[in-house]
Amino acid sequence: MEVLLDNLIPATLLVLSPTNILIMLAGVVVGTVLGALPGFGAAQALALMFPFTFFMSPEAGALFFISIYAAAEYGGSIPAILIRTPGTAAAAVTLLDGYPMAQQGKAARALKISLYTGVVGSIASSLIFLFAASGLAWIGLQFGPSEMFAVGVFGLSMIGSFFGNSPVKGFVATGIGLFLATIGSSGFAGLRFTFGLESLMEGLPLIVVITGLMAMPEAFRLLMARKGEAGLDLQSIKGADREKNHVGWKEMKKLSPTMLRATVIGTAIGSIPGPGATVSSIVAYNEERRASKHPEKFGTGCDEGVAAPETANNAIVAGALIPSLALGVPGSGAIAILLGLLISKGVVPGPLLFERNGLLVMAVFVGLIASALLMLLVGMAGVRVFALVAQIPRYILGPFVLILLIIGVFADQTYTPHIIMALMLGAVAFWFDKIQMPVIPIVLAFVMGPIVESNLNRAMVIHGGDLSFMLTRPITMGLLLIALITVVLAFRRSSQARRSGTRPATA
Hints:
This protein is an all-alpha fold. 72% of the residues lie in helices and 1% in strands. A two-stranded antiparallel sheet has the order 1-2.
C-alpha cells in the first residue's frame, strides 16, 4: 500500500501529461467505435489495436489499452439499445430493457443511463481495485519461482474450468494454447516443434496468435455477411420528448442502490479468471430484478434494467485487473492481451510488480478514472456520431477490417509468413467456433505458458531437480491443492449438469 501511495502524485502527473491524455482519448474513441460494431468485443478491439502499441512505453500502452477496454464495454450498448443488436456479448443483457425504451421514444434516456452508470461503475471499481490490489503487494516478498509456477498452474486450472460448454473443451483448448507456446526456442532445451521451418525458429509471435485466434474469425464473419441489413433510425436518438429523456442528479440518485450492487458484482466476478463481462451483466441484472419491488417491469423498458448490466460490465474492467496485475492470472480475454502487451514491454505481471513497477500500477489506477471521465465527455458529445458506425453494412466493413489486420501483423516484424500464420489460425478459430471449442483459453494459456515453464525450470535448478519443493513450500502446495480442487469441482458440476439434463453456463 505504501509503495503505491508513494507513486500517487508521480503517476497522476504521468497520466495527465498531454501526450497520455491524447492517447487515452484516442483509446476511448476507438473502443467506443469498435464496441458499437456488432461482433466486436473488447478483446477483439485490443487485438486489432495491438500493433499501434509497438512504439509506446509500457505506461502509455497500458493506458491506451485500458481506455479501449472500458470504452468498448460502453460502446456495445449503443446498437443494443437502438437496433436490438448488441455490439458486445455483455450488451445483450442491456437490450432487454434498452431496446423497449427506444421503442417507447426514450432511446436518448437509455443511452444516457448506459453512459452515466458505466462511468460510475468504472470509477467506483477503480477505487476498489486500489485497495484490493495493493493489499496483495506484500505477498511479493514471499513469492519465488516455485510459488510463481504454482500461481501459473492455478491460473490454468481456472482458465480450463470456466470456459466452454464443458471443462473437457476448456482444458483441451488450454492444452492447445500451451502447445503453441512451446513452439520455437525454449531457452533451456533448444528448438521444439519447428519441423525444420525457419519461420517457426523464434516461435509464434504474440501478435500473430492474438490476431489470428481472436480478430481474424470476426473479419471472416464480416466478409460472409449479406446485403440488406437494416440501418439505424436516427430520429430515435434525438430525444424529442425532453422530459421523459432527461437523466439528471435526481434520476441518478434513484439508481444509486442499483449501481452499488452492480459495482460490487462486477468487480467481484471480474477478479475471477474466466466468467467475464457477460456473466457479470447477467448476474447483476438478475440480482437487481430480485431486489426490485416491481420485478414485472424488467424487460419492458425500466431504468434499472439498463443501469445494472451497464454498471457491472464496466466495473469488471478494474475487477479483472486484480488477479492480472497482482498474481499474473488473466481475468478475461481482453486482460490477457493487456498482459501480453506488458510482457512484450519487459514487464512481468505478478506479486513483485507492485514492488518493482509501483508507478505503472498506480498509473493504471489513475488512468482508469481518467479514461472514465474522458468516456463521459466523448459519450455526451458524440453518441449520435458513434451510432452511425453501426449503420455501416457488414459486407462493406469486412474487407477493410481484414486489410487492417493483415497490415498490423506484417508491421510487427515485416515478415510475410506471419500473415499466413495469422490467416491459418483464423481459419482454425473459425472452425472451432462451429464446434463450440472456446479460443480464449488458447490465448490465455499461450500467454501464461512461458511464465509457467520458465519458473518451473528455475525452481528445479534452485532445488537441484528435486520436485519435493511442491510439498515443502506452503504457498506452492496450497496453490496446487486449490488448482486440483478447482479442476475436480469443474468436472463434478459438469457431470451433475448432464445428469439433470441442463447445460453448464458458457463463459
